[in-house]
Amino acid sequence: MPGISDLPVEVFEFVVAELPSSSLASALRINSHFYTLALRVLYRTINQDVIKDFNLARSLRFLESITTHAFAFGVRNPFNLVQTLHLDFARNRVTANLLRLIQRALHKLTALKELSLEFSLHDNHYPISWLLEGCTFQLRMLATSLRCDQQLANFLERQINLRELCLRGFQTTAPFVLSSEALPKLTSFRAVHAGVPVLEAIIKDRMIESVSLSLFMEDGFAPLDTLKLSKARIKRLTIMSLDTTTPATLIPEVTARAPHLEALHIVVLMARYDEETLLATTQCLRPFKGLRYLTLMTGGTPPDSGDESVVTRAWAKACPTLRTIILPQGKVWFERNGNWLCCA
């Protein structure tokens, strides 16, 4: 009869991966087999938001250990196992020495696949993307608050395996130019502060299917025009609007540029919509032929959107493909056997 030792190594790794991080140190000491598995799991993801007590001091010690630790011949370097790294300095003002330390650490993490780098609003106004120069890893996901300038574009130019990109940095008047061959595998792009030039540089002639962007009053609907530049149909769209545009005005602009959406999420930060305003949007949904998920949220004071069940049924009638609707009150409406139910 097969014993536990006959199980595939993937099963053991799955079990070890389910252990809390505090138990991995014990797993390292079981035997050489578990040492290899636990080491791989322990170093695979370094995330300040997940690891308990991973504060600024520990972050600095971790970065320094990457750059200074020497391993004897035949001893595996655990830093070569790191695939996901999340560093958040949004609450701190970084120095040039710290930036150079981050750069040296990134040079050592050759197996990195996912990288998240966050800096403060103050630091994001400065050209510090040079810290990515010389990195040899090939990412699948990058999320960063670094400002959108040519230094960052030059780094992206070399990332041939990147599939997900999130740019939360400011757009500048400096160039942000990518060649047509850059980012050949990119399918998902999220931007927070980026305007039309950056959106166009990223989306144009690439197989982008998922986009998140912001609409600023001074830009009008010009950012939405960039959706038409993708070589693929846009299936998922998230919009953060910083004006008082009504959904009856905004949604037709969306359907004109992305009629094949499967998911549409809209957050309007400076408006409040009542039931009448929401019902006035009903006919705007008819052009969508495959829309399944629709979210419309507002910011500010608590919403007074009336009886949202009435709105939900009207929208579902206008767009029969809808399966989930979230309205300003935050309730989740879903279709079940032809009926629309609410999950508050």
UniProtKB/TrEMBL annotation:
InterPro entries: LRR_dom_sf. This is F-box domain-containing protein.
